[in-house]
Amino acid sequence: MKTDIEIAQEAELLPIREVAEQLGIEEKDLEYYGKYKAKLSDELWEEVKENKDGKLVLVTAINPTPAGEGKTTTTVGLGEAMGKLGKKAAIALREPSLGPCFGIKGGAAGGGYAQVVPMEDLNLHFTGDFHAITSANNLLAAMLDNHIKQGNALNIDTNHIVWKRCVDMNDRVLRNIVVGLGREADGVVREDHFIISVASEIMAILCLAENMKDLKERLSKIIAAYDFEGQPVTAGQLNATGAMAALLKDAIKPNLIQTVENTPAFVHGGPFANIAHGCNSVRATKTALKLADYVITEAGFGADLGAEKFLDIKCRIGGLKPDAIVLVATVRALKYNGGVAKEELNAENLEALEKGIVNLEKHIENVAKYKVPCVVTLNRFVSDSDAELAFVKEFCESRGCEFALSEVWEKGGEGGIELANKVLSTLEQKESRFEPLYDTSLSIKEKIETIAKEIYGAAEVVYAPTAGQEIARLEKLGYGNTPVCMAKNQYSLSDDPKRLGRPTDFTVTIREVYVSAGAGFVVAITGTVMTMPGLPLHPAAERIDVDDTGKITGLS
User: Fold this and answer.
1) Does the first or last residue of the chain, that is N or C, have fewer Cβ atoms within 10 Å of its Cβ?
2) What is residue 15's predicted lDDT score, i.e. its pLDDT?
3) Looking at residue 347, what DSSP letter applies?
4) Strand ranges (DSSP E) for 290-418?
5) 550, burial (CB in 10 Å: exposed 0-12, middle 13-18, buried 19+)
6) Residue 512 in contact with residue 484, Cβ under 8 Å?
7) What pLDDT does residue 103 have?
8) CA separation for the pair 138, 166 (Å, rounded)
9) Which of 485, 495, 447, 457 is nearest to 203 (CA)?
10) Sequence-separated (6 or more) residues with CB below 8 Å from residue 192
11) What is the pLDDT of residue 20?
12) How far, in Å, CA of 519 to CA of 482, rounded?
């Protein structure tokens, strides 16, 4: 059996100009990054913004397990299947972070014959967007420390600096550091911290900004620190906005690539959904909607994280309305949720499937709260028995969901025809009456508790003393009327990653709260989730190599 990277390397790619032509994009609106990648010009939006929007389909999933679910693979395969049915379709994805690529999860290009390509470029440096975001983030950090060293005219309290440096790599030793050691000329000694680049507020801002003007306005509102009177000190006050925007001048432009079947793919931005808002850029999604009749996008991790943030943050801020939601699961993952060890998942086990399917049930219920039609799809594995497939099908249809099997990993678009037809019939027959879960006029605690109780199923929410104090301060400063971005582990509906299935009677603990004023939301960190991941015992980086001809191996 061929590996993902072998399939990607053997794919027959079209010149990106020909991919763009499928959507009516002219060559003058392409900014080439080699033969198979391009950024889309600012002028393109002005040319297409009055076009009628296509249909927007969100692909989400149950909570991830070691058994695999295949959400991105399904997104890509569904787009390919739409193409095989003669539909004018495009997909809209996030860019992968180097952290997971070299860590444990691997890349984010899909899999098998449902991948976006060039896969190696996408999973590594791509068009440099993440490097630009990292540079802009760290420029603000440098200007902040320099301001303090050069006299501290803004009266910054060095014990209350909230802006952190970032790097696009899992590196746990950078979580808590001390800077400024050495000579007096080397700066002021203080505690500092690193986060992974995908958790940077600048990543969120880039993904939510409509244009350069909006980007600069958002950048200027970033809170870097507080002064001795407890008032925010912003990037605008530090005179950093213009230089940061200059670093992001090209990064804000959406990227266009293709799938292994040459379906157009808008791949832009990449915030994680467990520690950030988990969606590709508003600008890429909106552009795709103006150019294609059907746009299939995905949101990170399970529906309790990615879908919730897509629906409550991205759609609200970007003025988007999903027409249907595809919820991805596998029989193997459901049995894992039912207590079966990974090594025993190939054996038929209806008892474990019945026990574990409650995780899918909760996600179905959650999607229904947004009043968007839902299609459940199972990524089919060879080990799945007919009895197991029939059980899941009956379970979903009895709850008002359309159901389809998917074999896109093995068969590409051909393996997604059943799913594509179900999605198309859902779009034709069922109306989306989308509305967010909560009103932003609620207090910060009310919004946190609405998400925790309605989406996660928590019995109560408790707050660390510092978190409660920060909420009170943020509301006093006028940051109470924003959406809330929950940072939570992805493996469980609860804030305890070991509680699988559908946990009940649990408490969610809010450890930390802060405002991303430029992005336009408050972040609530739950449990022990970290904004700087670490590498595992044997990171994926140990298996990645490049031969004398430049051919990369081991990347997944």
Assistant:
1) N
2) 98
3) S
4) 294-298, 324-329, 374-379, 402-406
5) exposed
6) no
7) 86
8) 7
9) 485
10) 161, 164, 165, 177, 178, 179
11) 98
12) 10
CA distance 208 to 488: 21
**DSSP 8-state class, residue 454:** I
pLDDT of residue 66: 87
* H helix or E strand, kind and range, residue 242: helix 241-247
Instruction: Dump pLDDT digits (tens) for 391-429.
Output: 999 999 999 899 999 999 999 999 999 999 999 999 999
For residue 413, give both structure tokens.
């678009």
Residues noted as catalytic? 71, 73, 94, 105, 273, 301, 381, 409
Residues 3-9 have a mean pLDDT of: 89
**Cα dist from 251 to 207, 218, 278, whole Å:** 10, 15, 18
DSSP letter assigned to residue 382: T
Residue 166's Cα: distance from chain center in Å? 18
Tokens of 354: 């019945």
DSSP track, 157-170: EEEEE---EEESS-
What is the per-residue pLDDT across 299-333, written as a single tens digit (0 to 9) for each? 989 999 999 999 999 999 999 999 999 999 999 99
Tens of pLDDT along 208-243? 999 999 999 999 999 999 999 999 999 999 999 999
* Residue 450, both tokens: 């609405």
The two structure tokens encoding residue 296: 């299939």
| pLDDT value for 292 | 98
As to burial, measured by CB atoms within 10 angstroms (0-12 exposed, 13-18 middle, 19+ buried), residue 330 is buried
Q: Are 290 and 51 in contact (CB under 8 A)?
A: yes
Write down the number of H helices and E strands in the chain.
21, 25
In terms of DSSP H, where are the helices of 248-356? 282-291, 308-309, 315-318, 331-337, 350-356
Q: How far is CA 238 from CA 15, 137, 234, 244, in A?
A: 44, 13, 6, 11
Residue 440 neighbours by CB under 8 Å, 6+ apart: 316, 447, 481, 482, 483
Q: What pLDDT does 238 receive?
A: 98
DSSP state, residue 547: -
In order, the DSSP letters of 54-113 are -EEEEEEES---TT---HHHHHHHHHHHHHHTT--EEEEEPPPPHHHHHSSS---SEETT
The pLDDT value given to residue 137: 98
Residue 37 has phi, psi (to 5 degrees) of -135, 145
Above pLDDT 90, what percent of the chain?
A: 92
Nearest to 325 by CA among 61, 20, 36, 523: 61
Confidence of residue 147 (pLDDT cuts 50, 70, 90): very high
139 vs 336: CA distance, rounded Å: 44
